[in-house]
Design goal:
The chain contains 12 helices and 12 strands. The chain is an alpha/beta fold. Strands 2-1-3-12-11-4-5-10-8-9 form a 10-stranded mixed beta sheet, sandwiched between helices. The protein has a two-stranded antiparallel ribbon with strand order 6-7. It is globular. The structure holds nicotinamide-adenine-dinucleotide, 3-isopropylmalic acid and manganese (II) ion. Manganese (II) ion binds next to helix 9. It is found in: Cytoplasm.
């Protein structure tokens, strides 16, 4: 049956990398007999320009009825004072679709090992997943900005924590059988509850080891001992920060994909980075984050394991061939890199 994929290209480098991702999908589809249709919708700043709101009704409805959603990136300085910012549209979309489980894999292609700013012996064997809670916590608590005071509320319920910890254990069970639960339990009440729930959930997974880490020291260990980790699970804000930090391991945000899943309904796939206004329109953005998000979509929404593998192999081969964009120290344009990946499919 034809799969309906809603695409949200958004802002900045968003449209450039989305085109790259869709070109790769179009080239791959006949090879794996994958039948799909693309339904592009306005989102983010582009939707503010077109419709006056970052998440128009038509976009939300299409997303709800899709088989999967691809999102590139939103935001930009020109929208910082918009009545509703692009970022708010993204948060509303995640909330409306119930996308509580954000999966951000960190693996370093062989070809990138020598490009990492870290020593090869530190990078060796790095392969972990950040599982970020995506629809709760301080992002969705009340925000109050007064002239001389401000307040952001961080709320978590037992159930919200339980379902994301379970996702982490389910993933760990199929991988390295270790969960590192990250919190700030020495200070925060939400973190104290987080730790209790993690211990409770762990009882149902006797084959998976659970360790706890405080977020500050974990931020350090992610760089000094990154190969120690298998599945890292944490709340919304910590997961945002730690996943950007993890991009230091491969050396660029430009290769980092993600998947966001709900209890029911379509999943959404997007790079972890933003709209990169500093390089938008220059044709030099790294499309790999988007292309690998397409691979994650094929595997996780459509069970197209082989197709996903074809894409990942083609990306690795392209990097091994030395086709590198500027963020990786190379000179290839987005179009050159995309063409090379397609020819390696
Ligand atoms: P950013 O992630 O857009 O960029 C950070 C740095 O990484 C920049 O130097 C950028 O050039 C580089 N970079 C990011 N993606 C790249 C790629 N594919 N290829 C090469 N280089 C890449 O973060 P920022 O500049 O702090 O934020 C810009 C805007 O994006 C803000 O409005 C922010 O709110 C928004 N944002 C959106 C998302 C999203 O759409 N999911 C995620 C993060 C930030
Ligand atoms: C991300 C982004 C978003 C977040 C912003 C744009 C709201 O940084 O997807 O990581 O903080 O979740
Ligand atoms: Mn982020």
């Amino acid at each position: 049956m034809t799969k309906k994929i809603v695409t949200l290209a958004g802002d900045g480098i968003g449209p450039e990398i989305m085109s790259a991702g869709l070109e790769v999908l179009a080239a791959l589809a006949p090879k794996i007999d994958f039948d799909y249709e693309i339904d592009p919708k306005n989102f983010g700043g582009a939707a503010i320009d077109a419709d006056g709101h970052p998440l128009p009704e038509t976009t939300l409805n299409a997303a709800k009825n899709a088989d999967a959603i691809l999102l590139a990136a939103i935001g930009g300085p020109q929208y910082n004072d918009a009545p509703v910012r692009p970022e708010q549209g993204l948060l509303s979309l995640r909330k409306a679709l119930g996308l509580f489980a954000n999966i951000r894999p960190v693996q370093i292609f062989d070809a990138l090992k020598h490009l990492s700013p870290l020593k090869p012996e530190i990078i060796d064997g790095v392969d972990f997943v950040v599982v970020r809670e995506l629809t709760g916590g301080i992002y969705f608590g009340e925000h109050t900005l007064n002239e001389r005071t401000a307040r952001d509320v961080n709320d978590y319920s037992y159930e919200e924590i339980e379902r994301i910890i379970k996702v982490a254990f389910e993933i760990a069970e199929k991988r390295g059988k270790k969960v590192t639960s990250v919190d700030k339990q020495n200070v925060l009440a939400t973190s104290k509850l987080w730790r209790i729930v993690a211990e409770d959930v762990a009882k149902s997974y006797p084959h998976v080891a659970l360790e706890h880490a405080l977020v500050d020291s974990l931020a350090m260990k992610m760089i000094t001992n990154p190969s120690d980790f298998d599945v890292i699970v944490t709340e919304n804000l910590f997961g945002d920060i730690l996943s950007d930090e993890s991009s230091v391991l491969p050396g660029t945000l430009g290769v980092m994909p993600s998947a966001s899943h709900a209890a029911n309904g379509p999943s959404l796939y997007e790079p972890i980075h933003g709209s990169a206004p500093d390089i938008a329109g220059l044709g030099i953005a790294n499309p790999i984050s988007m292309i690998l998000s397409v691979a994650m979509m094929l595997r996780e929404s459509f069970g197209e394991t082989i197709g996903a593998q074809y894409i990942e192999n083609a990306v690795n081969k392209t990097l091994l061939d030395g086709i590198l964009t500027k963020d990786l120290g190379g000179k290839a344009s987005l179009k050159e890199m995309t063409a090379a990946i397609i020819s390696n499919l």
